[in-house]
Amino acid sequence: MILLIHLRPIGWLEGLSRSSLQEIETKGIIKEFHAKESIFLSGEKLKHYYFVIKGSVAIYKQNGEGKKWIASLLTDGDFFPHVGFNQTDPNYPGNAEALSDSVLFVISKQQMNTLFNQYPTIHEHLTLFLTAKNQELITRFSNSVLETASHQLVSLLKRLASQSGEKVDDDWILIEHGMTVQNMAEYIGVTQETVSRILHQLYRDNKAKKVGQKKICVNYRLL
DNA sequence: CCATTAATTGGCA
DNA sequence: TGCCAATTAATGG
Question: Residue A164: which H helix or E strand, with range?
Protein backbone atom coordinates (compact mmCIF):
# COMPACT_ATOMS: atom_id res chain seq x y z
CA MET A 1 0.00 0.00 0.00
CA ILE A 2 1.19 3.45 -0.85
CA LEU A 3 1.07 5.86 2.07
CA LEU A 4 0.73 9.51 1.27
CA ILE A 5 3.41 11.31 3.20
CA HIS A 6 2.38 14.64 4.64
CA LEU A 7 5.36 15.08 6.91
CA ARG A 8 8.42 16.84 5.58
CA PRO A 9 12.03 16.36 6.77
CA ILE A 10 12.22 19.92 8.04
CA GLY A 11 11.97 21.52 11.46
CA TRP A 12 11.23 18.86 14.01
CA LEU A 13 11.81 16.11 11.51
CA GLU A 14 14.99 17.51 10.04
CA GLY A 15 17.45 14.90 8.95
CA LEU A 16 15.06 12.00 9.11
CA SER A 17 14.85 9.56 6.23
CA ARG A 18 11.80 9.05 4.12
CA SER A 19 11.21 5.68 5.69
CA SER A 20 11.42 7.20 9.17
CA LEU A 21 8.90 9.85 8.24
CA GLN A 22 6.63 7.20 6.88
CA GLU A 23 6.90 5.23 10.09
CA ILE A 24 6.22 8.30 12.18
CA GLU A 25 3.21 9.12 10.11
CA THR A 26 1.73 5.71 10.82
CA LYS A 27 1.85 6.51 14.54
CA GLY A 28 -0.60 9.34 14.21
CA ILE A 29 -3.27 10.68 11.93
CA ILE A 30 -3.69 13.70 9.72
CA LYS A 31 -6.66 15.76 10.72
CA GLU A 32 -8.13 18.90 9.24
CA PHE A 33 -9.74 21.66 11.24
CA HIS A 34 -11.86 24.47 9.92
CA ALA A 35 -11.34 28.07 10.94
CA LYS A 36 -12.65 28.71 14.46
CA GLU A 37 -12.97 25.01 15.17
CA SER A 38 -11.96 23.91 18.67
CA ILE A 39 -9.07 21.47 18.97
CA PHE A 40 -9.05 20.96 22.73
CA LEU A 41 -10.23 22.72 25.86
CA SER A 42 -8.44 23.91 28.95
CA GLY A 43 -8.40 21.35 31.72
CA GLU A 44 -9.14 18.32 29.59
CA LYS A 45 -6.85 15.33 29.89
CA LEU A 46 -3.87 15.74 27.61
CA LYS A 47 -4.17 12.82 25.26
CA HIS A 48 -2.67 14.06 22.04
CA TYR A 49 0.07 16.30 20.71
CA TYR A 50 -0.22 18.17 17.46
CA PHE A 51 2.09 19.28 14.67
CA VAL A 52 0.89 22.10 12.47
CA ILE A 53 1.40 20.97 8.91
CA LYS A 54 -0.48 23.90 7.46
CA GLY A 55 -2.54 26.69 8.92
CA SER A 56 -2.57 28.58 12.20
CA VAL A 57 -3.68 27.71 15.70
CA ALA A 58 -4.15 29.81 18.82
CA ILE A 59 -3.88 28.60 22.38
CA TYR A 60 -5.85 30.94 24.58
CA LYS A 61 -7.26 31.51 28.03
CA GLN A 62 -10.71 32.93 28.56
CA ASN A 63 -12.42 34.43 31.59
CA GLY A 64 -16.03 34.26 32.67
CA GLU A 65 -16.86 37.45 30.79
CA GLY A 66 -15.70 35.90 27.57
CA LYS A 67 -12.54 37.94 27.30
CA LYS A 68 -9.79 36.04 25.57
CA TRP A 69 -6.05 36.22 25.77
CA ILE A 70 -4.04 34.34 23.18
CA ALA A 71 -1.12 32.74 25.00
CA SER A 72 0.50 31.21 21.96
CA LEU A 73 0.27 31.36 18.20
CA LEU A 74 1.30 28.30 16.24
CA THR A 75 2.00 28.15 12.52
CA ASP A 76 3.46 25.73 9.98
CA GLY A 77 6.05 23.47 11.58
CA ASP A 78 5.06 24.23 15.17
CA PHE A 79 4.11 21.72 17.80
CA PHE A 80 1.71 21.98 20.73
CA PRO A 81 0.92 21.89 23.58
CA HIS A 82 4.30 22.47 25.20
CA VAL A 83 3.61 20.74 28.48
CA GLY A 84 3.03 17.34 30.01
CA PHE A 85 6.01 15.43 28.65
CA ASN A 86 6.93 13.67 31.86
CA GLN A 87 3.74 14.03 33.84
CA THR A 88 1.55 11.07 34.55
CA ASP A 89 -1.82 12.61 33.85
CA PRO A 90 -1.36 16.13 32.49
CA ASN A 91 -4.18 18.43 31.40
CA TYR A 92 -4.29 20.80 28.47
CA PRO A 93 -3.07 24.24 29.62
CA GLY A 94 -5.55 26.29 27.62
CA ASN A 95 -8.08 26.18 24.83
CA ALA A 96 -6.82 25.55 21.33
CA GLU A 97 -8.64 26.55 18.19
CA ALA A 98 -7.78 26.77 14.53
CA LEU A 99 -7.65 30.40 13.38
CA SER A 100 -7.74 29.39 9.75
CA ASP A 101 -8.46 26.13 7.98
CA SER A 102 -5.59 23.96 9.14
CA VAL A 103 -4.05 20.56 8.62
CA LEU A 104 -2.58 18.97 11.72
CA PHE A 105 -0.72 15.77 12.44
CA VAL A 106 -2.21 14.28 15.60
CA ILE A 107 -0.24 11.83 17.70
CA SER A 108 -1.02 10.30 21.09
CA LYS A 109 0.97 11.29 24.18
CA GLN A 110 2.26 7.76 24.42
CA GLN A 111 3.37 7.61 20.81
CA MET A 112 5.00 11.01 21.16
CA ASN A 113 7.12 9.74 24.03
CA THR A 114 8.06 6.74 21.94
CA LEU A 115 9.26 9.09 19.22
CA PHE A 116 11.36 11.07 21.67
CA ASN A 117 13.12 7.89 22.70
CA GLN A 118 13.39 6.48 19.23
CA TYR A 119 14.60 9.62 17.48
CA PRO A 120 17.10 11.67 19.51
CA THR A 121 17.02 14.38 16.88
CA ILE A 122 13.34 14.99 17.61
CA HIS A 123 14.10 15.31 21.29
CA GLU A 124 16.83 17.82 20.53
CA HIS A 125 14.34 19.86 18.56
CA LEU A 126 11.98 19.82 21.53
CA THR A 127 14.66 21.41 23.68
CA LEU A 128 15.45 24.05 21.09
CA PHE A 129 11.77 24.71 20.53
CA LEU A 130 10.97 25.09 24.21
CA THR A 131 13.94 27.40 24.65
CA ALA A 132 12.77 29.60 21.81
CA LYS A 133 9.22 29.64 23.13
CA ASN A 134 10.47 30.57 26.57
CA GLN A 135 12.45 33.46 25.16
CA GLU A 136 9.48 34.54 23.11
CA LEU A 137 7.21 34.53 26.13
CA ILE A 138 9.63 36.61 28.20
CA THR A 139 9.91 39.13 25.39
CA ARG A 140 6.15 39.34 25.07
CA PHE A 141 5.67 39.73 28.76
CA SER A 142 8.21 42.51 29.13
CA ASN A 143 6.77 44.22 26.07
CA SER A 144 3.29 44.13 27.55
CA VAL A 145 4.54 45.92 30.62
CA LEU A 146 7.12 48.24 29.13
CA GLU A 147 6.01 49.05 25.62
CA THR A 148 3.09 50.69 23.86
CA ALA A 149 0.41 48.74 22.05
CA SER A 150 1.85 50.05 18.80
CA HIS A 151 5.26 48.64 19.63
CA GLN A 152 3.74 45.30 20.56
CA LEU A 153 1.79 45.04 17.34
CA VAL A 154 4.91 45.86 15.34
CA SER A 155 6.78 43.17 17.25
CA LEU A 156 4.10 40.67 16.36
CA LEU A 157 4.21 41.64 12.70
CA LYS A 158 7.98 41.37 12.64
CA ARG A 159 7.90 37.93 14.16
CA LEU A 160 5.25 36.74 11.75
CA ALA A 161 7.23 38.21 8.89
CA SER A 162 10.46 36.47 9.80
CA GLN A 163 8.70 33.27 10.74
CA SER A 164 6.27 32.75 7.93
CA GLY A 165 6.49 35.73 5.65
CA GLU A 166 7.24 35.59 1.95
CA LYS A 167 9.61 38.12 0.47
CA VAL A 168 7.95 40.10 -2.28
CA ASP A 169 10.99 42.24 -2.99
CA ASP A 170 13.91 43.75 -1.09
CA ASP A 171 11.79 45.58 1.46
CA TRP A 172 8.33 44.11 1.41
CA ILE A 173 7.26 40.90 3.02
CA LEU A 174 3.85 39.34 2.61
CA ILE A 175 2.33 37.77 5.71
CA GLU A 176 -0.56 35.40 5.40
CA HIS A 177 -1.20 35.33 9.10
CA GLY A 178 -4.71 33.96 8.97
CA MET A 179 -5.51 36.15 11.93
CA THR A 180 -8.36 38.59 12.21
CA VAL A 181 -7.88 42.03 13.70
CA GLN A 182 -9.71 40.62 16.69
CA ASN A 183 -7.12 37.82 17.00
CA MET A 184 -4.23 40.28 16.96
CA ALA A 185 -5.99 42.30 19.64
CA GLU A 186 -6.44 39.21 21.78
CA TYR A 187 -2.77 38.41 21.34
CA ILE A 188 -1.42 41.71 22.61
CA GLY A 189 -4.22 42.34 25.05
CA VAL A 190 -5.97 45.41 23.64
CA THR A 191 -9.28 46.01 21.88
CA GLN A 192 -9.84 45.46 18.18
CA GLU A 193 -10.46 49.17 17.76
CA THR A 194 -6.97 49.90 19.00
CA VAL A 195 -5.39 47.40 16.64
CA SER A 196 -7.44 48.77 13.77
CA ARG A 197 -6.22 52.28 14.50
CA ILE A 198 -2.59 51.25 14.82
CA LEU A 199 -2.77 49.39 11.51
CA HIS A 200 -4.26 52.49 9.94
CA GLN A 201 -1.23 54.47 11.07
CA LEU A 202 1.13 51.85 9.63
CA TYR A 203 -0.68 52.06 6.30
CA ARG A 204 -0.58 55.84 6.39
CA ASP A 205 3.16 55.84 7.12
CA ASN A 206 3.67 53.36 4.31
CA LYS A 207 5.15 50.83 6.70
CA ALA A 208 2.53 48.28 5.74
CA LYS A 209 -0.08 47.65 3.10
CA LYS A 210 -3.37 45.90 3.45
CA VAL A 211 -3.55 43.02 1.03
CA GLY A 212 -6.65 41.23 2.21
CA GLN A 213 -8.55 40.69 5.40
CA LYS A 214 -6.11 38.08 6.59
CA LYS A 215 -3.04 39.18 4.70
CA ILE A 216 -0.73 42.11 5.11
CA CYS A 217 2.43 43.34 3.44
CA VAL A 218 5.00 44.88 5.72
CA ASN A 219 8.10 46.91 5.05
CA TYR A 220 10.55 45.20 7.35
CA ARG A 221 13.10 48.00 7.14
CA LEU A 222 10.67 50.73 8.17
CA LEU A 223 9.05 48.74 10.95
C1' DC B 1 -28.37 38.97 -3.71
C1' DC B 2 -29.24 38.67 1.36
C1' DA B 3 -27.82 37.61 5.99
C1' DT B 4 -24.04 37.60 9.09
C1' DT B 5 -19.79 38.61 10.76
C1' DA B 6 -15.71 41.55 10.76
C1' DA B 7 -13.54 45.96 10.48
C1' DT B 8 -13.49 50.90 10.78
C1' DT B 9 -14.57 55.49 12.68
C1' DG B 10 -16.08 59.15 15.65
C1' DG B 11 -17.30 60.65 20.19
C1' DC B 12 -16.57 60.62 24.95
C1' DA B 13 -14.77 59.05 29.68
C1' DT C 1 -6.86 53.38 25.53
C1' DG C 2 -11.44 51.37 26.46
C1' DC C 3 -16.22 51.28 25.51
C1' DC C 4 -20.37 52.27 22.73
C1' DA C 5 -22.79 53.25 18.67
C1' DA C 6 -23.09 53.92 13.83
C1' DT C 7 -21.26 52.77 9.32
C1' DT C 8 -18.97 50.40 6.05
C1' DA C 9 -16.58 46.20 4.33
C1' DA C 10 -16.19 41.34 3.53
C1' DT C 11 -17.73 36.59 3.60
C1' DG C 12 -20.54 32.66 2.89
C1' DG C 13 -24.33 30.75 1.36
Answer: helix A149-164
